[in-house]
Amino acid sequence: MNFISIAVYVLLLLSFVLGLKLAPRRGFNEDSLSLDAMTSLKGVLAIFVLCHHLSQKPAFQQTHTIGIFEHIGFLFVGVFFLCSGYGLYKSYLKKPDYLKCFLKRRVLPIVIFYYVMIAIYAVYHLIQGSAFTPVEWALKLSGLVMINSQCWYVIVILIFYLAFYFIYKSERLRKYGIPLFIVISLFFGILFCIIGHFPWYASPKNWWMNPKNFASIPWWKGPCALPFEGEWWVNSMFGFVAGLFIAKYEDKFIEWSSKNYGLKLAVTFLILLAVSAAGFFCLFCISFWSEFAFNGKLGILNKFICYAAQCIQVVVTDFFVVLVMRKVYVKNTFYNFFGKRSLEVYLMQELALFSWAYLIQSGEKAIFKAHNWNIALYAVLVTLTVFVSAIIYHWINVQLTKKLKKS
After folding, report:
1. Looking at the DSSP assignment, which residues form a beta bridge with residue 362?
2. How much is the pLDDT for 230?
3. More confident residue, 402 or 325
4. Alpha-carbon distance values, 126 to 122, 131, 312, 393 (Å)
5. Which of 40, 110, 314, 390 has CB 3.0 to 4.6 Å from 344, enough for a Cys bridge?
6. pTM for the complete prediction?
7. According to the model, what pLDDT value does residue 300 have?
8. Distance of CA 58 to CAs 11, 28, 43, 53, 128, Å?
9. How many CB atoms lie within 10 A of CB 310?
10. Domain boundaries in the chain?
């Protein structure tokens, strides 16, 4: 473990210690699933996702800097989905007319957030002189092709929000809400497993097995050119289902977890260790990538195996987090502030990661300086850029949507 990793872990630990909400020795946090608790949790997750994206950079990988975050980003996103599913269902239960203006107050603001983000990234790419073709520009500006590879989360959450609206608005469908969301999540998971990371029309093996060809192929034949090409679109979706389940059966869940809490927490932790071991075995030894899985002998079966393993990881992680929060959770001004801006923090990350990339890499080649000072500087500048841009982006969003939420 290097000095930069130690510094990051210590700073994170201090940020938690300064804002822990501890339950009484023989009691529980009665507000562990409150809006404030969930908001602070989203702030923590936003920072963790940023650490995850930093850890994926070649310079960070080769120096093993904050390597603990490299392969668990989908678990953080799974908890994000948990918060969304839980929050939607609780609002639906508490507010009789919640769905009446749902499209205007909840869905339309996210669409506006999405296109404001596209405008910001378009300006960035114009300044950078990115070589997009006219067709590529048109598709990216329309939102049909992602101008920010991390904005897939917005598309998925919009699908969930729309599904929630149409399911729970219908008297016939609402009683099947959770099973229907399981079906929706499985549908997109199966779709990914069939489509894979590449457009099916591009004969990807011809260029993927020879990296020299990668730079010369058209953008529309590259990996993730179309929606749902990449396991990150689908492997966290069951977090939303977990959120709906906990919200619907919250009283029973609290009653269940209050009895023999220590034993249930320990058993859940052991299950989490077991499913994580299985999940990481699938990730590293079976792989989502057919081209490398046992020399391709599994066909697309490798994707189904990895997908199933990671879905189980997400659900168990979500329940473990909720159990832990019954006794302890982070609640401070910092995480509450960025929890309210968690979507903006998430969407501004790619801009910051690219803006300062010249400090740590040339093309795909990592750059190393004495004592890796450039890596530390990169992490600091990216973090500051994300925070500042997220605050500005949030202010713009508020100005554009405040009338919608009041109406």
Report:
1. 365
2. 85
3. 325
4. 6, 9, 42, 18
5. 390
6. 0.93
7. 80
8. 23, 43, 26, 11, 22
9. 28
10. 3-406
